[in-house]
Records
---
Amino acid sequence: MVIYGLLEQDLGADEIAWFRIPLALVGSTVGVAVYHGRVLRQGLRAVPAESRPKAVHITLVAHEGAGLAEALAERTGAHVSLLTRADGMAGQAWGDPALEDLVGAVRAAGQTRLLVVVAADGTFEVVPVTEG
């Protein structure tokens, strides 16, 4: 009706008074949408793309390393999967790696996927890996 009134140039004060509430609702909705769209765009531009920490996945290969896996997950915040070594060294005494050294090596690697292999003497190797 408003469009017909505008096209025919026959829009009087009575017609405008009758449409004032719907026009106010439409106008305020458009205004709020435009405002929030601009604020959202500015906010997204202000936040760097890499601001979220990436999840770290560690595969730990050790002999009975359940306690070590829990401690490593607790200290690094990473998801740790444990694989038990089955290379015939069951009767041998195993050394435990120094947890602080292991945590430092994991953090120094700076990768999201790591393979940590613990040897019989307690030494370890941290290997960055990729999927595929």
---
Amino acid sequence: MNLYGKYSHSLAEIYFILISISVAKYFAQLDPSQCGKTFNEPNLRIQGGVKALPNSWPSVAFLVFQYKFFLTTNGFVTTRTVRGECGATLIEDDKLLSAAHCFKTSITLSDGTKVTVQPNIYHKDLNSMYTIYLGLHDKTSIRPENVYNLDSFKLHPNFDSNTLVNDIAIIKLEKKATFNEKIQPACIPLNVEVNFVPDAVVWALGWGAISLDSSVSSDILKNVRLKFIDDKYCGSIKNDELCIGDLTDGNDTMKGDSGGPVYMKTKDNKQVVVGITSRGVFWNKKTVGIYARVDSYLEWIYDARLIAFKENSAVCYSSKFFFTITFLTQLMYNY
């Protein structure tokens, strides 16, 4: 007896189809006509890391980690503060993507002392150690409307802090952003069409170090024109990573750019976030970059929204459980 009635596909195949459809439906709701907008055309023709024009990349965000704690050394207690900077990309009015390694579980001080990052009298929880800045161009001119607190964040469950594999995180803000000429969501690679072809031009952004041998970060947002390059230049990378660089002039993202976006432009001038800055490697005395490939994580992004952020209190199980129940219900109905 055929227990599946008129269904000829395996349960696994239909399960996968249902997941794909549900994920696609969610991302289709992110109206492509309402994402990737810009109100000031970027200086796209300029190669090398240059200062971006104001409001030309309105989905890029600045992420700051600031941890204040007590440190006991030789019986003396002192107060220390450690700061870290990353980038992020706005994809909804209260959701952003960044790199998982931007969120700290421990820090190592200059003398080699390792400190566990945990809540204390200065920080009620981990979220309070981070601040997001939207609509920001110059770090020296921060205004109250630029500042957003974190409600929560979730790292990819298979993130490896040693190898930086699956280096992606999703952030939820405490309050929704109001879209204007300075703040807009980026498009993602499902609700618009992009072509991943060799030598395709992309743009990376950030407030990172001003040069490879400098620890001084840029006050002004910078953009750099790069290209997709052969994976061989990045060594051993995974299918869900992108190898991007500039083999001619050696331009690349720098320390402090981590978590920031890599954009492609569509034919109708939409800004699409296709990569998240993860790490760099050396090739022939030049640095090239490895980036988390956004379209490889669309299902995880969908799941993270439902489970980690608990937007609907009725959602008690993973979306995979929901999809399975949906399938079985339809199966019983048609049997």
---
Amino acid sequence: MDVDSTESDQLFNKLMIWMKSLHFTSLSLDPKCLRSGRAFGEVLHGIDQEFFNETWIEKVAQYDSDSNWRVKANNLRKLTRSLAEYYDEHIHRIVKGTPLLDIDEMEFAEAGSIREMLKMAVLIVGAAFLGRKQEKFVAGVTILDPDVQSGVATAIQSIMDGSEKREIQSPVVIPPEEVLPDMKPNGGVSSSSSEELGGRITLLGKEVSLKGCFWHALTKLNYSVFSMSS
């Protein structure tokens, strides 16, 4: 993400407003307190409690903000490692080895650099809006200030620009004649699961498309939240 200091500060503040709106952590989101990494961990836990589960969050220790930076950097490594895995497994995008995940440990854990904190915030936005729980976050962000929505859209675009799509191996296609159809009580054949899923996605897309300027901001960025799931 190539932005100057002022832009970094502004975008960081917008993403912190969004993060506070989630109510996933009671910890301060002030840069000095964020240095321990625990607050970011709690937000990730709230975003996807199956992946960032209780066992996981227990390993992200709560350190005092003035603790030795090398100790706090342990949490940062846990966060970045798990985020890389989450993007690979559930977003199907590669962030490992990219500038997106290149967070300076000392600048983050000791200096509380906004620039380095912003990198983590952007990755967390991506986990929310591109991950498997994305629908509830799209619905939630639409009630926030348009300026905040624009910041979220900018973060998502940064992920798209800075990561690579991971190719997913296509499943083996079984000829229709080899599949026994589901039968309705009246003896007819039910709609296939793929058709049902397609219908739900279509309805969801129509619903989300009505949700104000956030959707329009994404459209302007030539990006659809749900297109990345396909």
